[in-house]
User: Fold this.
Amino acid sequence: MLIYVGFVIGIGFFLSRYMKSSSDFLTSGRSIPAWVTGLAFISANLGALELVGMAGNSAKYGMITAHFYWVGAIPAMVFLAVFMMPFYYGSKARSVPEYLKMRFDERVRALNSVAFAVMTLFASGISMNALAKLLHALLGWDYNVALWISSGVVLVYVLKGGLTSAIYTEVLQFFMIVLGFAPVVYLGLKDVGGWDAVKDKLALAATNPVHLNLADTAGKTYHPYAWSSAWKPLLDGPNQNAYGLDWFGVVFGLGFVLSFGYWCTNFLVVQRAMAARNMSAARRTPLIAAVPKMLFPALVILPGLLAVALTNIPGKDYRIPQALIESANYPTAIAALNQAVAQKAKPEVASAALTQALKKAGNSVGFNRAKIEALLKDKAASPIPDELLKLRLQDAVNNDYDGVIFSLVKKYCPTGLLGLALTGLLASFMSGMAGNVTAFNTIWTYDLYQAYFAPNKTDAHYAWMGRFITVAGILLSILCAYVAKRYDNIMDFIQLVFSFVNAPLFGTFLLAMFWKRCTGTGAFLGLFGGIGTSVLVHGLTMAEGKGGWLGVDLYTFNSTMAQNFWLATFAFTSCFLLTAGISLATARTKTDEELKGLVYSLTPKIKHDEGSWFLRPAVLGVILLACCVVLNLIFY
Amino acid sequence: MGLDIRWPIGLMFSLIGALLTGYGAWTASDSKMYQRSLGINIDLRWGVVLLVFGLLMLLLAWRGKSRYQTPDAKPTGTNPAA
Assistant:
């Protein structure tokens, strides 16, 4: 198998040498069909993080995760294609920050660059964390060792020249992941017995959710369809879905703010469409990408549901992965538990004491409150033998949903296919790390350091700075990886980062593109205020024991995702209102003539210069939206 | 000269597909190994799928090469709609 993995990696290296630079892609983008730019567009979004994160998410929250696709992504991609792309492409800007500079001024661009730099660090840290977990789960490496080794590899890789063909590698990895993982889903579905059987088993899980080790499921049950339906659990109200949200929180927070924010302002994604050969191709790019995106839940959401279903089939010997209590640490854990029983401690106090005691022993695990409560009750009633106690303690450890994909790969892949699946995941995480560190390096050195701190230095100076900042970037990413590790699902954390960066930015862009009165000062202060609002709300509220770092807990959300959606909503709204208000109070600095091509009302309507009527973005968009409605109805 | 992305995709999956098919055929008698995949020789089956996919990509790239040989594209930076 090693030979096989080596061979596949060898092919990757051979190809990446052959393809010198991303500009290769740009030139070929002008001579090959538009579906290729669509593919590049979707590849920037769909890597291993999406697979691991979304599968974990659907295990944790159920079918409502599909809203990321059928309420969020698809409408947002259609909006990008029909309404926003004309200005991105028409402005001749080569990147999202560059558009902001043309539309407003340097300040807005700089703020956006800083926010984006921070985001790349987190993105790289999240990939590192996922990779270390993968190595831990499948090869048994220690998490910390795996983290530092992979960081070392990436450091050498980036210093030696970095990613020279990011787009090509991403597209290849996209296919590797899709084609490497599809048979696992097929086998899993066959094993459970088809979709109807999955639904039956999910009903068992929903009516007895303690199996799922959710954050707080003491005595709580859901309707049988809570994990297998997309809409019904939401319409039943916050008590009946694992997000703990009503439909508005999801439709506005996720569907409108987070999704539109991601698809319409994310530098890495939008960039791909800007490389298209002409306006029509640029606008068709997100629409073409929307087709695979719409079908992706089959590959990324179904595995999470399968994992929950398998947990509820006796004899399948499957459990959603957890962090392990090391055998040497059981005496410590049992002692802490005994103490809690003696003190008649409340379950949350006992859970915290257990976590604390094990943390001292270097074993970081969290405990499920409901299960600890039951354990305390049983133990107080009658003594439990140590062997059984060990099992129950381990069973009470919180789930680690990121492990869902790894565990399914391990369960169903024989040697051979295993190599393919592993290589895909490994390569994707590695390039996720390297790509983001490289992006961080570029933004810091050229967009910020050269532009504002030390202009007119020698090339050698900037090269030195680049190397220095790569090392610094990797160290900061490691820090972010440890923050990410605190989350039991990386998608929860990714969306948190997005709600800081993308959500307010979407407010800025809406006003920038559709309101010519919007001023630079308004946009700058509004964006600043929007990001500040996110930070403030996160500091003042809690979810699953996280947030609330300002020391005051004004409100506790039912789930991390609920907190993310509301953070995004607040950030967007405050950015939008502040930008609008301050714009009205300040004078315009750009004339109508300067804003031509950048703002909706000042840009001539596009003439359809290419293709038949049914290839027009608006027509394609309506077709895509109709398909989306149908999917929503099927899984209602 | 840019490289049509279908070439590397096709090349890579033809190779991986051929390898996986070969490996699946070679280990076909090892029923213990395939217990994991519910008794299905998934290596052989999926190897064939990947091989077909890879070859299809190569075919499309080869056909595309003759069709898109003449560069009819506009130079970078021009924008037909502006």
